[in-house]
Amino acid sequence: MALTPQKIKLSIGRNLLRLMPLILMGTLTLVTFWLVKKNTPAEKSAIERVRLHEPDYTITNGALSALNESGNTKYRVLGKKVIHYDDDASIDIETPRIRLFPPDKSAVTVKADKGHLDGDLTVLDLMDNAEIFRPPQAASATEPARPRMLARSSYFKVLINDDIVETDKPVTLEQGISVMHSNDGGIFNNIEQSMVLSGQVKGRIERIQPGAQP
Questions:
Q1: CA distances (Å), origin 115, targets 78, 155, 163, 190
Q2: Which own/partner pairs from 76-80 qualify as long-range (CB within 8 Å, at least 24 positions apart)?
Q3: By residue range, what is the domain housing residue 187?
Q4: Residue 27 lies in a domain
Q5: What residues form DSSP beta bridges with 137?
Q6: Is 104 within a domain?
Q7: In-domain check, residue 44
Q8: Within 13 Å and on the Cβ side, how many CA atoms surround 206?
């Protein structure tokens, strides 16, 4: 059968009609892809992404120690659970306890229910039932005898490099059988192993009787 130009045009038209849905779907797919690409922000590199404040590791019964210039332990931080955060290298501590070891003096213990250590390992915040404890000290050639010391507050900040423990919260201080209280906080100097209360101080100061247990 001979094909005339009219029959050829008719055949092409029918084929185009059959293909029209596919052509429309393909065009719609391309347009959708273009719109998605246009409205999607460029992916940032790993360095540019903001790191979330999420723990990257947890240690049970963890300990962190630092040495002084002589190679002796300067301080030791202990905790029932130590939680480290990758974004700022800070550490949360459950039932924290820091032991301070001044040269030629008794170790001082500062503890609380909760703690937070900054990423530079210079500031330890201790919250809830916070205590500073210095055991009694016998007299030496250069130092008089000292009774035990116990300070209680809801918050203590340990400035590790400065050997200072401070608070601006109400604090109660016991030295031997003497008891003092301040609503304005106080500062404990670990080098001198003494505490100075701020503001108005109330309480009682009593001498230890000879032979009595400090």
A1: 10, 10, 17, 19
A2: 76/101, 77/117, 77/124, 79/115
A3: 55-204
A4: no
A5: 146
A6: yes
A7: no
A8: 12
| Residue 138: predicted pLDDT | 82
Within a domain: 34: no
CATH number at residue 193: 2.60.450.10
Q: Which two tokens stand for residue 184?
A: 């304005």
The structural domain count of the chain equals 1
| Model confidence pLDDT, tens digit, residues 91-101 | 999 999 999 99
- Report which of residues 22 and 180 the model is more confident about: 180
What pLDDT, on a 0 to 100 scale, did the predictor assign at position 179? 96
Q: Tell me, what DSSP letter sits at residue 212?
A: -
Distances (CA, A) of 68 to 72, 73, 125, 199: 6, 6, 22, 34
User: Where is pLDDT greater, at 90 or 140?
Assistant: 90
- Which has more confidence, 36 or 122? 122
Read out DSSP for 150-200? EEEEEEEEEEGGGTEEEESS-EEEEETTEEEEESS-EEEETTTTEEEE-SS
Share of the chain above pLDDT 70, in %: 73
Distance set, CA 76 to CA 6, 67, 102 (Å): 97, 9, 12
> According to the model, what pLDDT value does residue 130 have?
98
